[in-house]
Amino acid sequence: MFSWFANPHRFLTLSSWLAPICYALGALLIAWSLWQGLWIVPKDEYQGGDIMRVMFLHVPAAWLAMASYMGMAVMSFIWFIWRHEVADIAAKAIAPLGATWTALCLATGSIWGKPTWGTWWQWDDARMMSVLFMFFLFLGYMALRAAMDTRQKAARAGAILAMVGAINVPLIKFSVDLFTSLHQDASVITVDGPKMAAVYLWPLLASGLGHSLLFAGLVMTLMRAEIWQRRAAQIRARLMAGD
Amino acid sequence: MLPEFDKNAGFIWASYALGAIMIGGAILTVMMKARLAKAELARTQVRAEEARQK
Amino acid sequence: MSASPILSAFRQALTEAWAGGAGALMPLGFFAGAAVLVPLGIGTDPDTLRAVGPGILWVALALASLVTLERIFQADVEDGALDLWLQTGAPASMIAAAKAFAHWLTAGLPLAILSPIFALMFQAKADTSLLTHMGLYALGGLAFFFWGGVGAALSATVRRGGLLISLIALPLYVPTAIFGALAMSGGPGSTGAPLFLAASTLFALAVAPFAMGAALRLAAD
Amino acid sequence: MSTRALLSATDLGMIRGERILFRNVSLAAHAGEAIVLRGANGAGKTTLLRILAGLTRPETGNVNRAASHHWIAHREGLKPHETPRTHLGLWARAWGAPTDQIDDVLNKMALIRPSDVSARHLSAGQRRRTALARLLLQERPVWLLDEPLTALDADGRELLLGMIFEHRMQGGTIIAAIHGDAGFDSTCEVTI
């Protein structure tokens, strides 16, 4: 499977049809989940009335914050061990998008927290704290890559940091959980299965899948842009060298 | 046509507006970056072609 | 894999930290500054200070470690010593661990040893808990210097890498800061916290050297 | 002269950013030989030497090191607080070389007078001679020298050329990146 990553050309042909599908399917799922979440689904007084409708945006963003960082770490590992260029291009493309959804998760969580707990930032919320540190891990990764002078060094430094960050996420999560006492325990996927009523659950899963597909499409397009950029740079370098 | 929400309507619309702005912004920048990169590559290939002919 | 190169790397880092004078004094000054400024900022009511004291000292210790860490690998890159160390045949991770440990010894440990003085300034009760806290500051400081070392090694070739180190190290410092402050809070969960602190420091000692070694190989590439 | 190469490299290639620095460079250094790397500044002489030393990872090709090597680069590796004596003492201990020879190494390199002056106050020539003194600390067949003649005065050059001549006589080999006149007859030159 890993050799599949090796060849940028093969990725370009694959992503040329896969990205549009992700966009279309993602848009469809998000639209359906929004329509359900905002129009159809009944208000749940126990969960604070209409405010819980924000979860159809907040929960997918929280999921993507964690999943995209882990994806970036896996891509970094593949690049670090097998030096497949496409894996590095993927890691570099995931970072800014992952940071965007992480920021979105923090923002919507803060807006959701104001009427629910009366504060814009709930320090005792373990999941929000973990997402906050994911955001810093993304910022550190992007800042480090930008600070390196050549593309190869940026890839190698970024890979090291992404792997160190990933290996620390469980420890950060555990320490934050220990630190926080008051928290709305994870109601979607828990040990004894989702506790939420099906009428909320399906739109939530749909929006989660929809956001993920949209995210995947955007990553692929950003990767295509990076590959074209590198090709242009290589041609310019050859032109300059005059051979 | 828009749904009626209780007292927290402002917060709900604010969250979704923010979502639309950030995700919309991400989509626009990515599409623009892709289009620019593709155009740049085409331009460079043309220049390379001319250089080879000279 | 003879140990002599690693011992020599440790000795060079030790003398460099002491000789420069900056090694021990700068973090101390930084630590004292932070510890003195805070009461001026948040008021000097004894109860709040006693509650906030340990947390402030952990933050001051973390920031003090970042102050010294910026130079430990950048200096070796600039004067060419790193090239020599990477050719001694000893693994880069052990060389990096030796240097990070030496800098902890010259900067982190003195801060821990002096922590009772600052704790008393924060109205802490003068009892044996000051000594146990000293041990916890030393233990946690080690994790700060090793995770911070990863940030320092990654940004060794970056001009003014200090900001980058802080950005990289901040999330990695979180577990140590949480367990450390919790262990000293005396509240619920404070009995188990020292063990978690020790565990997270051991985790840092086990993982960070390999990341530092890979980053140093990159810095010399 | 044994025919086995002390250090050989085949088909080395390196790119910097997007620019191809050099391609399929091969060389082999046998006992008694001296290879001089020529090329404009920034052409990649130092990078090639760093590849031979194992510091830099080449894009293509590989290096076969049959013998240990010394590395003397533009940045001498001297800490500001180190004196010539402590510098040599540190590296003798790091490499497991005897430390009682340090005094006559300092003597041979004409560093007795400034032997206890910290590097921050040494002249460029004295710093360069302290770095070159490492060559005498331990017997290593391959010498990788990056612009070794810079900052050396007349008798400094004389000293180094003598050391190089003696090293080659004892079956050692030299690979040096040099700008301008080498001052010794090289068996072959590689231009990048």
Please give a structural write-up.
- The complex is a heterotetramer of chains A (243), B (54), C (221) and D (192).
- Chain B has one helix spanning 9-53.
- Chain B has 54 residues and is mainly alpha-helical.
- Chain C is an all-alpha fold.
- Chain C has one domain (5-220).
- Chain C has helices spanning 4-20, 22-42, 46-79, 81-85, 92-121, 129-154, 162-185, 193-220.
- Helices cover 30% and strands 28% of the residues of chain D.
- In chain D, helix 2 runs parallel beside helix 4 (124-137) and helix 3 crosses helix 4 (124-137).
- In chain D, the strands form two sheets. A five-stranded parallel beta sheet of chain D has the order 5-6-7-3-8, with helices on both faces. A three-stranded antiparallel beta sheet of chain D has the order 2-1-4, with helices on one face.
- The model of chain D has no long low-confidence stretch (mean pLDDT 89).
- Chain D has helices spanning 45-53, 84-95, 102-108, 124-137, 154-169; strands spanning 5-16, 19-30, 34-38, 60-65, 69-72, 142-146, 173-177, 188-191.
- Classes of the chains: A mainly alpha (243), B mainly alpha (54), C mainly alpha (221), D alpha/beta (192).
- Chains in contact: A-B, A-C, A-D, C-D.
- The C-D interface holds C 2, 4-5, 7-9, 11-12, 15-16, 19-20, 75, 78-81, 83-84, 86-88, 220-221 and D 50, 53-57, 69, 71, 73-82, 86, 90-91, 93-96.
Question: What labels describe this entry?
Answer:
heterotetramer, A: 243 residues, mainly alpha, Four Helix Bundle (Hemerythrin (Met), subunit A), B: 54 residues, 1 helix, 0% strand
Chart the SSEs and their pairings.
The complex is a heterotetramer of chains A (243), B (54), C (221) and D (192).
Chain A: H1 2-6, H2 8-40, H3 55-82, H4 85-117, H5 126-147, H6 151-179, H7 198-241
Helix pairs in contact in A: 2-7, 3-4, 3-5, 3-6, 3-7, 4-5, 4-7, 5-6
Chain C: H1 4-20, H2 22-42, H3 46-79, H4 81-85, H5 92-121, H6 129-154, H7 162-185, H8 193-220
Chain D: E1 5-16, E2 19-30, E3 34-38, H1 45-53, E4 60-65, E5 69-72, H2 84-95, H3 102-108, H4 124-137, E6 142-146, H5 154-169, E7 173-177, E8 188-191
Parallel strand pairs in D: 3-7, 3-8, 5-6, 6-7
Antiparallel strand pairs in D: 1-2, 1-4
